[in-house]
Task: inverse folding
């Protein structure tokens, strides 16, 4: 398992499984992440380990799910991607491209993304995308 010493000390582990109820459906929609932690103000950090080959639809699915969670009022502070350094460029291109597309076409906000190596080193950071920052020229 990758190193996880990058979670702020004020945060405590919580279940990485989240449920979204839908009216008229007998079963909730379930999202599961590789890790999650909650801060003292109720905000949540999600963790997703991408230790193998990066697959488009898999990454798009995670970015879409986090956008839905935010849209449903969940207080997601950030998503931390844990990735092999050699796969980082591909992950960045897919995740950031999908985030921008969701914002430009549907004004769907997403929280900050951190990209960390398997040993926990910060590779890159991308702030939250919402109405307070501009993507007009992208």
Result:
């Amino acid at each position: 398992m990758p190193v996880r010493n990058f979670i702020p000390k004020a945060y405590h582990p919580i279940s990485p499984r989240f449920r979204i109820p839908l009216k008229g459906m007998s079963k909730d929609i379930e999202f599961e992440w590789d890790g999650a932690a909650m801060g003292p103000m109720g905000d949540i950090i999600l963790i997703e380990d991408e230790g193998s080959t990066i697959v488009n639809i898999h990454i798009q699915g995670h970015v879409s799910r986090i956008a839905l969670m935010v849209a449903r009022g969940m207080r997601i502070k950030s998503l931390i991607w844990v990735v092999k350094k050699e796969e980082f460029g591909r992950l960045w291109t897919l995740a950031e491209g999908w985030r921008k597309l969701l914002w430009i076409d549907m004004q769907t906000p997403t929280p900050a993304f951190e990209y960390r190596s398997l040993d926990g080193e910060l590779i890159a950071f991308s702030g939250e995308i919402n109405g307070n920052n501009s993507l007009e020229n992208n």
User: Anything to note?
Assistant: The chain has a mean pLDDT of 91.
